[in-house]
């Protein structure tokens, strides 16, 4: 398995707005080959930190997703989000290979 986490720091007063965006996400990734799961995590002691946690069967499946037209379309829409403060946030991306379960 392959896990990708995108960590974003949002203004605390906008955390619920961002959570709402992810709760209403397009879900197009859900139909991608090799996609296993999506979770949005909120750091309990630091609620302004949100983590998009995605699990894939393989790294190759993930790479196919990030080079897809669907991925590009979704991320272009994010750049056009009306709240430019939120639209300009750049996540820190962490990638992991699962070695034991």
UniProtKB/TrEMBL annotation:
Keyword field contains Metal-binding: no
InterPro entries assigned to the protein according to its UniProt record, in alphabetical order: ABM_dom, Dimeric_a/b-barrel, Heme-degrading_MO
Keywords of the record: Monooxygenase, Oxidoreductase
Domain (ABM) ranges: 2-90
GO MF annotations, alphabetized: monooxygenase activity
PANTHER family on file: SIGNAL TRANSDUCTION PROTEIN TRAP (PTHR34474:SF2)
Protein's name according to its UniProt entry: Antibiotic biosynthesis monooxygenase
Species of the source: Paenibacillus sambharensis
């Amino acid at each position: 398995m392959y896990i990708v986490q995108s960590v974003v720091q949002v203004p605390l007063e906008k955390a619920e707005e961002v959570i709402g965006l992810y709760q209403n996400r397009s879900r197009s990734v859900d139909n991608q080959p090799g996609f296993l799961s999506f979770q949005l995590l909120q750091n309990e002691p630091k609620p302004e930190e949100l983590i998009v946690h995605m699990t894939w069967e393989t790294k190759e499946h993930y790479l196919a997703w990030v080079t897809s037209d669907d991925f590009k379309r979704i991320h272009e829409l994010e750049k056009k989000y009306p709240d430019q403060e939120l639209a300009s946030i750049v996540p820190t991306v962490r990638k992991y290979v699962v070695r034991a379960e």
